[in-house]
Amino acid sequence: MQTIPAEKHLKIGGLIFPNMDQCDFTGPFEALSRIPNSTFYTLWKDKEVVRDMRGMQLVPDTAFHEAPQLDVLLVPGGYGQEEVAADEEVLAFIRDQAKRALYVYSVCTGALICGAAGLLHGRYATTHWTAIDVLPLYGATPSDDRVVIDGNYVSAGGVTSGIDGSLILAALLRGDQVAKELQLYMAYDPEPPFDSGSPAKASDNVLSIVRARAQQITEQRFASARRYAERAMDLAN
Amino acid sequence: MQTIPAEKHLKIGGLIFPNMDQCDFTGPFEALSRIPNSTFYTLWKDKEVVRDMRGMQLVPDTAFHEAPQLDVLLVPGGYGQEEVAADEEVLAFIRDQAKRALYVYSVCTGALICGAAGLLHGRYATTHWTAIDVLPLYGATPSDDRVVIDGNYVSAGGVTSGIDGSLILAALLRGDQVAKELQLYMAYDPEPPFDSGSPAKASDNVLSIVRARAQQITEQRFASARRYAERAMDLAN
Predict the structure, then answer these.
(1) B190:A163 CB<8 A
(2) In this complex, which of A27, A40, A168 lies closest to B193 when CB atoms are compared?
(3) Within an 8 Å CB–CB cutoff, is residue A69 touching chain B?
(4) pLDDT for res B236
(5) Which residue of B has its CA nearest to A157?
(6) What is the rounded distance in angstroms from the CA atom of residue B139 to the CA atom of residue B52?
(7) Parts of chain A with a pLDDT under 50
(8) Mean of the pLDDT values across residues B113-127?
(9) Where does the DJ-1/PfpI domain start and stop, copy by copy (chains A, B) (predicted)?
């Protein structure tokens, strides 16, 4: 499978924003920034330092107004997704890029940002398992798959699923051989020490604790999705 | 398994440096920065922006001279490891911290930095598969395991193995329950799209291409290990 000519230079961009979950961005960056014949842009409204949910400081290299038309746009999530999904400047940037991008790629609750931007209507999509039931408010059909491809919209589930999705995207862009080389470089032959990586596999005890911890942000996400959904539907039509 | 009292506040630090491989740091950060009752310090010689091998810009929050005695020190790798392993200021910081840290945790070729700092003598260790044969020059016994625990020195193999190791470390520090909660939050239930994540699993073709790409840095690593090894042995004694 290889849809893009190798000689076409690919412009790949990833959003960063305050209170993001850094791993939603940095996991995919590892693969996407190494795609042959490509340039990676780290994007935000300005070029000031951005702090993730746990304080990691990342610096954008390209402001929205400097960005070229991208072939791939990566949209990560994290608690700060709530503010971004209410920010018309960011939503307009995403919508504008999405019109001609080969792929928009959301990781984790980046899907809810894409939902607020009107990109999810009529699409299959996934997101972090705590937020999966929010997707229908944006007109999407939720999927339990770890990575979902629906035309030019690709979504990955929670946090580390962004790594799986980025290798799939590498294969879509440059073929399986390139993705396999990236996987070997990244030594992506995972051995999770426990079998606790999904709601179906975690113990009831672990699940109820992690779910309780996310309850407040989950309720917020439902509330804001109800507010944004109508606008998102208008945008989709 | 839980060795550290839950009420003991843990100080966890991670090095960043120019031309590092960001994922060696950011993968473990995702778990380690969420360990209950802990503070995470992002460390370098100064607080200027650091660019990873692919240009991602990270900012340290703590300079070496400001750092407290750490309970855990994370040492990532990447091509910039070569310069760091020759930098006496960094090596002295690592050696000094290692004396009283509960764990030194190297990811990828961070092991070679620890080797140059004299920490590997007589230890079992692992590193990125392209560099595994360099370890004996630093007095270490190489292991093919993805994560190796040898007393207070923990090492993970290439890049993404740092995620597995960080969950193991979370279990060592705070018990299995905490690690399982982190794994569920991170949705770490990996589904690599190909079976190409280790030299044993990759095709000959993929392996020879990725190995050839790393040949120059591998040769450099052997050459510098030969230069640093004697000093490292002296430091170890």
Answers:
(1) yes
(2) A168
(3) no
(4) 66
(5) B187
(6) 29
(7) none
(8) 96
(9) 15-164
Contacts (Cβ under 8 Å, ≥6 apart) of A212: none
Of the candidates B19, B11, B83, the one whose C-alpha atom is nearest the C-alpha of residue B42 is B11
CATH 3.40.50.880 fits A10-236, yes or no: yes
Domain boundaries, chain B: 10-236
| pLDDT score, position A3 | 66
Residue A183: its chain B contacts at CB < 8 A? 192-194, 196-197, 202
Determine the distance in angstroms separating the CA of B38 from the nearest CA of chain A, rounded to an integer: 11
What ipTM describes this predicted complex? 0.95
The type of residue at A218 is: T
What is the rounded CA–CA span in Å between residue B228 and residue B215? Answer: 20
Does an H or E element contain B22, and which? helix B22-32
Q: Judge whether A157 is closer than 8 Å to chain B, CB to CB.
A: yes
pLDDT digits (tens, 9 = 90+) for B156-175: 999 999 999 999 999 999 99
- Any CB–CB contact under 8 A between B29 and chain A? yes
- Which pLDDT belongs to residue B162? 98
Is A32 within 8 Å of chain B by CB? no
Which residue among B30, B157, B196 places its CB closest to the CB of A23? B30
- Give me the amino acid identity at A69: Q
- Contact residues, chain A, for B179 at CB < 8 Å: 193-194, 196
Q: Considering only residues 84 to 113 of chain A, which have any Cβ-Cβ distance to chain B shorter than 8 Å?
A: 108
Distance, in Å, from the CA atom of B57 to the CA atom of A52, rounded to the nearest integer, reads: 13
Q: What is the largest CA-CA distance in chain A?
A: 52
The pairing of strands B38-44 and B10-15 is parallel
Compute the C-alpha angle B31/B36/B37, nearest 5°: 130
Is A108 a known active-site residue?
yes
Calpha distance B180→B189 (Å, rounded): 11
Angle between helices B204-213 and A176-185 (to 10 degrees): 60
